[in-house]
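ugh ok fine here u go
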Amino acid sequence: MTIGNEGLNQEIKQIGFVNANLLEFTEHGMTEKEFSDYQVDPQIHAVVKGVCGTFDFRKVAVASLYLQNPEVEFVATNEDHTFITGMSMRRMPDVGASLRPIEASCGRKAFTVGKPMPYALEIILKDHFAADKDKWKDPAFLDQFVYVGDNMETDIGFAKSAGIHSCLVMTGMTKLTDEIPDDLWPDVFMNAFSEHPFHEVKHNVCVD
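structure:
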């Protein structure tokens, strides 16, 4: 079962899984009696949470009900709380903002496959560097990688957890006026992705 937009639904289908939420979530809200009498589908083995523009109480209730079963997997695409959208540069709620109510209601923490967890790097290494598997944990081998992003918590957090270089672009979530914790301090700052780094900090890393 997915709680997300159409992109996530299509991804789930493409890898061969059946998504069980399409008819279920046309309803909105849930009473205490309905929750108490709700019949769970034994064929649902996972709840996958992505960004969802139609998130509501019913989704929290149904997801938490399934996740009371420890054998049902709980997966999130990422933990970003907001993302920058449009020319207005407004911050729109992302996965993390609506993930927390589900985690709180079921008492479980989702396994995050996206940032800031290093899982994505493992996929990249498997797909493109399988012949170097014995070097994947070698700092000298990882020295060739740099992750570029605009969010210090998730993008730079991903680079830190993966053991690779990091470059923070100052055109999105994180601004120069923000306080950046020592453990999230990037190797390089960039004013914009189209420009060269304007302030190198700890390593001689250049991102073109």
